[in-house]
Structure formats: structure tokens, C-alpha cells
Amino acid sequence: RRARRTRRAAARAEGAKARAYTLRSPALASPLCLSAGGFSPPSVVLGREGEKNDVGVDCDVVSGRHVELKVERRSSRLVATDLGSTNGSAIRRAKGGGAFAALGGGDMAMEPGVAYELRDGDTLVLATRAMLKVSAAAAGAAEAASEASAPPAVKTAAPMFGFSKKKAGVPAEEEEAPASKPAFGLKPPQAAKAAEKKPEKRPSKPMFGFGKAAEEAAQEAAQGVGSDTTGEALAQAGALLGALGKGMADAGSKGAEALRRAQQEREAEREA
């Protein structure tokens, strides 16, 4: 009797210290954490995925609402209650002892509606197929372990001054240099062509038929083309200019002579 009392006292002390519990199973999408206080819920209902329950179990023979798990607030014990499932529930103790039934081959069968305590190392068996391993830890330790096992979330850098967001850890794309602004409204290629294009020289109009020759002579005089010395070029230009002046004088005298003849003819007509 004293030994039993000692074991019960030790179990109560262990339950008082271990306020958080974690259940792991391949049938669960992620480890299930329960605690009397903190962020974890104190109680949940487990059942077949797709049914009205809190946690889905990936097993076809599990009922829609199979079992309820709850952490008692005062004693911090984890208890399981079968909700009248079709294929039943059982507890596989970490150490042998107690009354055992034939369900699952040596597992302790759970009667519907009766709360059974789950201890560290026990296994909750649902419909003889889904195995949920129970582990107990201090308050907050189980939650920290589950968070540590989860993959770290990728954080994004906060936008600064309205600029676009960039993911942290991802090298930023090289920004392209802004294109140079066109000068005077021209696009860069057109501006380059305009700069390369030189003004064309327009030939001057000939004067009295001598302009072309005089211009060629002046150009030869200025550039020294077609003559040995600059003096010869100037002499040729002077001769051409002299010829131009003589031609103009001849044209003027001829014009005056034509006017005199016209006046004489008019006077002769009047006298007649």
C-alpha cells in the first residue's frame, strides 16, 4: 500500500510539474500541443479528416468525432475521453501494470464517456490503427520545441519611403542606368546624326554672267589652287574683275545710245 501511495504521489508531482503535453503521430499533420495555460488550447476533439472536429486524423476507420483530449486546470493532468466511437480507443502504457483488455492486443480499452489519464510515454490508440505518442514537458517547453521544429518563416523587408518591397536574402536585381535625356527635344540617335551633319555650302548666284568665273578665281586666289603663288591668283582675279567692269561699262554705253536713238525717232515722228 505504501508503495502504491508513493507511486501515486510521484505521478501527481510529475503531473503538477508537466503542464504541457505534445502528441505526435504520422496520422497528424503536425505535432499537437496541449496545456492548461499559455497559447495552446486546454482541450480538443480528434476525428477523421473532413469531419466536424478540432484536429483531423488521417485514418479512414477513425470516427468523425472520436476522442476528446483535455488538460485539467488544477491537476494539470492530460485526460482522454472516448466520444462513443465506432471502433473504440485504447491506451498503451509505457510500463506494464493495471487492468488490460483484449482490444489491440494487450492495450487498455477505454470505455466511452470515461476520462482516462495519459502520462509521459503513453500511446493513445484510435481504432487500433492511429497511434499518438504522448510526451510531457514543463510549461512552455513543448510549445518551444514545436516552434523550433517548424521551418522558419521567410521575412520580407519593410518598404521604405514608399519604394517596392524586396525579399530578404534575395540579391537585389541590378538597376539599369537611366537613359540620357534627349538634347533639345531630339532623341539620342537623331541628336548624334544632327551633330555629325555639317552645313552644306550653297553656290552663289552668278552676276551678269561673270559671277561663276569670278567666284572660281576668288576661290583659287584664297586657296592657292591652280597657281604656283598667291600673287598669280590675285592677278587673275583682278583681270577678271576688270573684264567684268569693262563689260558693265559697255553695257551702260550701249543702253545710253539706244535711249538717244529712241528719243530722236520720237521727235522725227512729231515733226512729220
UniProtKB/TrEMBL annotation:
Biased composition (Low complexity): 179-193
UniProt domain FHA: residue ranges: 44-96
Biased composition (Basic and acidic residues): 194-203, 257-272
Coiled coil (residue ranges): none
Pfam families: FHA
Region (Disordered): 172-229, 246-272
Entry protein name: FHA domain-containing protein
